Amino acid sequence: MNILLHVCCANCAIYPVKVLREQNHTLTGFFFNHNIHPYQEFQRRLDTAKEYAERVELPMIYEEDYMLEEFLANVAGDPQDRCDYCYHSRLEQTARVASENGFEAFSTSLLYSRYQQHETIRDSGRILAERYGLKFVYDDFRIGWRQGIDTSKAMGLYRQQYCGCIYSEKDRYCPKSRN
């Protein structure tokens, strides 16, 4: 199949790209991550995605606009449910671009991370696949967690320390209350 793969970051793309290529799919990556904060982090992840794509000869489509205001407008009222919006909005943009550009299917490198909500991602992908007349390729890429980490370190890629949004940055770095 001709698959558009949403790339949340270079590190998470390594194992899915390897597996999907081994399955003889034709891949194009799609970088759309309006959730990443701050801007310098967004730019660093974008640059790393470009470096990775060039090194592994992965054709890419990049959405380089920094759309923090749109993301925050949709999650600020209920930060606890931010991940649902984040997954769905990024997958919907991926499905839209896939549909508009003749891809048969789409998937996401989010499925590589042990920290993401796979059921939510899978359900959203299936709904969007039906809406856009595509296939959603679900694979539990978490089995390659260690291999992806080892490869990214060997490649010397920038490795981020939190999922991406302002809330995940706070969860990562802000000391927890001792109550």
Q: How would you describe what is shown here?
A:
The protein is an alpha/beta fold and 179 residues long. The protein has a single domain (2-173), classed as HUPs (Rossmann fold, 3-Layer(aba) Sandwich), CATH 3.40.50.620. Helices cover 51% and strands 11% of the residues. It contains seven helices and five strands. A five-stranded parallel beta sheet has the order 3-2-1-4-5, with helices on both faces. Strand 4 (105-108), helix 5 and strand 5 form a beta-alpha-beta unit. The N and C termini lie far apart (52 Å). The model has no long low-confidence stretch (mean pLDDT 93).
Based on secondary structure, the structural category is alpha/beta
Q: Tell me the overall shape.
A: globular
> What's the pLDDT, averaged over the residues?
93
CATH class category: Alpha Beta
Q: Indicate the radius of gyration in whole angstroms.
A: 16 Å
- Please provide the count of β strands: 5
The largest sheet has its strands arranged as 3-2-1-4-5
Element-by-element helix/strand order: EHEHEHHEHEHH
For this structure, what is the CATH homologous superfamily? HUPs
Count of structural domains: 1
CATH topology: Rossmann fold
- Report how far the terminal alpha carbons are from each other: 52 Å
- Unreliable sequence segments: none
CATH architecture: 3-Layer(aba) Sandwich
Biggest sheet layout: 5 strands, parallel
What proportion strand? 5-15%
Fraction in helix: 40-55%
| Total helical elements | 7
Please name the defining characteristics of this protein.
179 residues, alpha/beta, Rossmann fold, five-stranded parallel sheet, 7 helices, 5 strands, 51% helix, globular
